[in-house]
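> example.struct
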């Protein structure tokens, strides 16, 4: 743990429902499966990964604020807040922590309201459409960013 760079994996609304929620779109794995895989993959990359999920915009904002000075990077699946929230990108700007935007599904192949993200202009990069595997890809990318 000592010397490991800290990365926060943050999941937003309805991602606690993974496994039950529209499995054809989001996959059959649970959030617990994803979080366990993130911890394992982070360990292999020398990253100390903390995973959190909230259905509440303000709680996500608070955790992003707290990441300032305490986390080296953030992997963020903001769920539907991606398309609606101004407070979350404001918090990311204030936190000054590099982040990767992530979506399990290919949002560009879905409804038009999912095509716009308030986060994308601020993100180091965006991963979407690879399902749960996207979290490992994001951690790989974050390890390189932080190297
Ligand atoms: C998850 C959600 O909950 C949706 O609101 C987004 C994203 C897409 C995902 O693909 O992980 O539109």
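> example.seq
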């Amino acid at each position: 743990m000592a010397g490991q760079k800290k990365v926060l994996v943050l999941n937003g609304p309805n991602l606690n429902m993974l496994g039950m929620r529209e499995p054809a779109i989001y996959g059959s794995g649970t959030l617990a499966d994803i979080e366990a895989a993130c911890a394992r993959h982070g360990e292999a990359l020398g990253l100390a990964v903390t995973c959190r999920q909230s259905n509440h915009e303000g709680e996500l904002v608070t955790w992003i604020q707290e990441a300032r000075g305490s986390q080296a990077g953030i992997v963020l699946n903001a769920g539907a807040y991606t398309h609606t929230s101004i407070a979350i990108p404001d918090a990311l700007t204030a936190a000054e922590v590099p982040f990767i935007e992530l979506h399990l599904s290919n949002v560009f192949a879905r409804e038009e309201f999912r095509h716009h993200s308030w986060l994308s202009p601020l993100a180091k990069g965006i991963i979407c459409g690879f399902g749960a595997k996207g979290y490992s890809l994001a951690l790989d990318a974050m390890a390189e960013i932080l190297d």
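> remarks
The chain has a mean pLDDT of 97.
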